[in-house]
Amino acid sequence: MDYTLDKRATLAALFRGKVDACDADPYLLKAAKFHGTRADRKCPVCKKSSLFELRYTFGDQLGQYSGRIKSDDELVEMENEFGEFRVYVVEVCRECSWNHLSASFILGDGQTRKPPRRQRTLEDEDWVRR
Hints:
130 residues
């Protein structure tokens, strides 16, 4: 699904002063810095080349790994490992904090699978110590 029409409406409202759309969360800006892929287009607000894309993956079959950022290469691998999961592409400008959902799509091979076994993480260990 392409969110271009929604983006145009948001930009029009922003330029009319009716909405503040340059409000990226600090974690989103940090994710763009370390995990984002530079987009081949400029930011629609500040017109600088600081626009990055993040690809978030969500799905029941991903288990505890749902909600993680993945690269294009990782998505290609995941497409054959999982039956179905959704990818959300978010664009973020590190200069002016513009952010918008630009696209979403479904990947997978169509076979239903159980989520991977939950593995203990550092967060689990911290919880036990409290």
